[in-house]
């Protein structure tokens, strides 16, 4: 496939994550057959008995032929001669019968044993091939094997560079965080123990006196040794504690760099950019070696504030820092991200061992002391101050890097942080003395000398994978180290460049929610018309007489899966409590509630009475709304508190009178910020508030009491009179339990303000992310046109407040 074909793919470059189909790796237990118990042949004593019989018979014959024995004595010796002969003949016959019978039985047993060995041999060969094929399916090579390579003979191999890189490629980005091989990359081929178990027979060495079994037993032992290990890919895990160092001393440094590049390619192919991001720090001298990485989707600079929507990756920066200037620019970004992750680890509830995503892999190339690093210059003579300005030049302003990035303080947390931080470091070193102190794994590139061919010495590259720990396990030998030429790297990266993940709707909470996006259609400041939203039928209903009425239902944020979180002041209320410590987003949530009510409902339907015990900075901008009928701040003196109580009494009395006359009044939302501090000053405040809570629903008065802490007995008294509770991050589990009857709010992340719980209805508890109303405003946007006349608005106020105030 040409380069042009690779880059001119079909229009669809979105890759959907698929169900992973795992190759079957055998876990069988193979019991080698026991050696047969061969029958014993005729004993040697039988032949001795025959020999003695023959000697006796010969003695009788000698006596009979030598001595002249008269009479019937000769006939007396004939029976003894005959008996001895018969006994010898019978013994010989019995010996031969036993001998041939034993041989026949032994042959049958050995044939059966050989058949069992052959069957076991075939099974072991099948398991051996099956496991090798499965291991290579999991970790295939990047490039096609060379013709002279024998490691892949008889196996089906599709190298990564020849894969489809499209929707039909089921292995592309297949590894997920819960998979056992997540962040596992291949470095080459070597011998590893088989997963299937070969059990030797218990009687393998119990027949040393049977020479016929020696060859078979040797065959069993050879088969066991041959199939207990196999040539498979050697892999290393990147999510282990400490950096992983690749060392290539002297002339092996380039081979180590090629291995590092091959590992990056393996990482890129098997892992999605959603879950793995790569940062590369390399000297200017290796620009050609790493320029290809700027086309990888995994090197797009990771920004946790980035929205989840798919964007054009060509407009994004890639985290491939080449040269001192780029490295010094990226190191603070790395340090800041690591600090953010450390903060998240301390503030969020996570399962033990759970990592932060995306996992960051920082690749650091070797920095040569004299070629890539700036050396301290020799002392210069003192120059008068008036000449020092003339001496400044580009060399003095050039960014300098005097040590390797591995020794920079910005990398300290990456090199020594816990695995749950979600950061791994891959570094290339020219000497073992350059290996970082906290390294856990060392991949040492070595070479062995082959036989001389045509008068030339050839070498085969190997790698020794060693764990750097006390009492380390034996080193793993990689017999054939992976490597990839520069042309293949460029081809690989160009094929990966147009790919990005098909992001589906994730069942998690957003960290930033804009209030404007919670309306349909989304609120546009340039074309905002208050009357259009004041008439939205989604937030209006009808009473028993069929007359239109406000539902008092407003959006305040989003729940899991981007579902909108609503607050219903009629069904959930009428009164509520808002608790959140400093920095939790309490003031923002109060502003969201006020702004949502003012956007949806008319001033003749909803009014605000805003009271802040302190300076009133959070509520002060809303005093210009047409809905606001009263605003009090710095309500710290008993006189002001008494004025507020008197105002509440008068408003409640007025509403009761109007209700008896059959007249309707706008619903009034009374928001009191830092009510606990106010209640400490005057106990009668709580009594007056409780009086209102009893009749609040009938007379259209709603209370929303906000404070940083529950404050013990005050919260206990208030809790019994409110119907819904908004609880952001609390200072302690006890405070959370005081409000929600559970400790969850104490463990909300401090780095995400606005995250909280809504307890409403029949003890229904919703986790939500509060929407924000803080919108950057330009001076041109602060001029509104009521009745066609341009009117300047206070530039400290929000655009929405300004436009609503213009309707006053």
TrEMBL record:
Stored InterPro entries: AAA+_ATPase, FtsK/SpoIIIE/SftA, FtsK_dom, P-loop_NTPase
Transmembrane segments annotated in the record for this chain: 44-63, 75-97
CDD domains in the cross-refs: TrwB_TraG_TraD_VirD4
Residues given in the record as ATP binding sites: 580-587
Domain FtsK: 561-737
Region: Disordered, residue numbers: 377-402
Keywords: ATP-binding, Coiled coil, Membrane, Nucleotide-binding, Transmembrane, Transmembrane helix
A Pfam family recorded for this sequence: FtsK_SpoIIIE
Coiled coil: 103-130
Highest taxon of source: Bacteria
The protein's name: FtsK domain-containing protein
Organism, scientific name: Ktedonobacter robiniae
């Amino acid at each position: 496939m040409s380069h042009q074909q690779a880059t001119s793919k079909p229009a669809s470059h979105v890759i959907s994550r698929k169900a992973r189909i795992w190759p079957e790796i055998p876990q069988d237990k193979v019991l080698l057959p026991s050696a047969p118990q061969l029958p014993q042949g005729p004993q040697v004593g039988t032949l001795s008995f025959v020999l003695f019989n023959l000697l006796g018979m010969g003695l009788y014959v000698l006596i009979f032929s030598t001595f002249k024995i008269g009479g019937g004595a000769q006939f007396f010796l004939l029976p003894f001669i005959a008996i001895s002969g018969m006994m010898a003949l019978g013994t010989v016959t019995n010996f031969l019968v036993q001998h041939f019978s034993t041989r026949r039985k032994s042959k049958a047993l050995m044939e059966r044993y050989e058949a069992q060995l052959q069957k076991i041999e075939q099974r072991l060969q099948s398991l051996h091939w099956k496991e090798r094929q499965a291991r290579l399916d999991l970790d295939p090579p990047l490039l096609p094997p060379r013709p002279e390579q024998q490691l892949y003979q008889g196996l089906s191999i599709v190298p990564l560079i020849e894969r489809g890189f499209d929707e039909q490629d089921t292995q592309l980005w297949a590894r997920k965080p819960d998979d056992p091989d997540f962040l596992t990359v291949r470095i080459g081929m070597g011998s590893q123990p088989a997963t299937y178990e070969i059990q030797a027979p218990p009687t393998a060495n119990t027949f040393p006196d049977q020479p016929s079994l020696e060859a078979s037993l040797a065959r069993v032992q050879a088969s066991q040794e041959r199939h207990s290990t196999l040539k498979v890919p050697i892999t290393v895990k990147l999510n282990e504690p400490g950096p992983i160092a690749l060392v290539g001393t002297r002339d092996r440094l380039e081979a180590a760099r090629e291995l590092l590049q091959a590992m990056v390619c393996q990482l890129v192919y098997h892992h999605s950019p959603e879950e793995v991001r790569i940062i590369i720090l390399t000297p200017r001298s290796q620009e050609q070696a790493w320029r290809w990485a700027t086309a990888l989707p995994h090197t797009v600079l990771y920004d946790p504030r980035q929205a989840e929507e798919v964007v054009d990756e060509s407009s994004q920066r890639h985290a491939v820092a080449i040269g001192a200037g780029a490295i010094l620019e990226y190191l603070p970004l790395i340090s800041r991200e690591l600090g953010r992750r450390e903060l998240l680890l301390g503030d969020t509830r996570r399962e033990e061992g759970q990592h932060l995503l995306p996992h960051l892999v920082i690749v650091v190339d070797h920095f040569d002391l004299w070629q890539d690093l700036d050396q301290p210059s020799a002392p210069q003579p003192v120059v008068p101050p008036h000449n020092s300005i003339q001496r400044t030049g580009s060399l003095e302003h050039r960014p300098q890097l005097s040590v390797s990035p591995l020794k920079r303080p910005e990398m300290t947390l990456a090199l020594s942080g816990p695995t749950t931080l979600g950061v791994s470091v891959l570094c290339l070193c020219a000497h073992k003395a350059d290996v970082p102190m906290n390294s856990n794994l060392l991949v040492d590139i070595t070479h062995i000398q082959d036989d001389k061919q045509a008068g030339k010495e050839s070498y085969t590259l190997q790698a020794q994978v060693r764990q750097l720990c006390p009492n380390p396990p034996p080193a793993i030998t990689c017999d054939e180290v992976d490597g990839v030429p520069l042309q293949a790297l460029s081809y690989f990266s160009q094929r990966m460049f147009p790919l990005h993940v098909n992001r589906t709707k994730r069942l998690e909470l957003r960290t930033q929610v804009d209030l404007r996006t919670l309306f349909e259609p989304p609120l546009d400041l340039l074309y905002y018309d208050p009357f259009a939203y004041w008439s939205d039928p989604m937030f209006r209903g009808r009473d028993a007489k069929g007359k239109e009425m406000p539902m008092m239902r407003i959006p305040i944020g989003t729940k899991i899966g981007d579902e909108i979180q609503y607050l219903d002041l009629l069904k959930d209320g009428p009164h509520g409590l808002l608790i959140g410590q400093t920095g939790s987003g309490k003031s923002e949530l109060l502003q969201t509630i006020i702004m949502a009510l003012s956007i949806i409902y008319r001033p003749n339907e909803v009014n605000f009475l805003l009271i802040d015990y302190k300076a009133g900075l959070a509520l002060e901008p809303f005093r210009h709304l047409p809905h606001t009928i009263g605003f009090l701040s710095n309500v710290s003196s008993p006189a002001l508190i008494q004025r507020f109580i008197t105002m509440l009494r008068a408003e409640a009395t007025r509403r009761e009178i109007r209700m008896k006359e059959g007249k309707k009044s706008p619903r009034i939302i009374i928001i009191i910020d830092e009510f606990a501090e106010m209640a400490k000053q005057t106990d009668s405040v709580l009594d007056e508030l409780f009086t209102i809570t009893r009749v609040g629903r009938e007379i259209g008065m709603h209370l929303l009491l906000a404070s940083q802490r529950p404050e013990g007995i005050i919260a206990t008294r208030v809790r019994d009179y409110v119907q819904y509770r908004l609880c952001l991050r609390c200072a302690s589990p006890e405070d959370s339990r005081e409000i929600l009857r559970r400790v969850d709010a104490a463990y909300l992340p401090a780095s995400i303000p606005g995250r909280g719980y809504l307890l409403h209805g029949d003890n229904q508890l919703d986790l939500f992310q509060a929407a924000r109303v803080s919108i950057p405003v330009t001076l041109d946007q602060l001029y509104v046109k009521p009745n066609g006349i341009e009117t300047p608005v206070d530039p400290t106020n929000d655009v929405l407040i300004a436009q609503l105030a213009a309707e006053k």
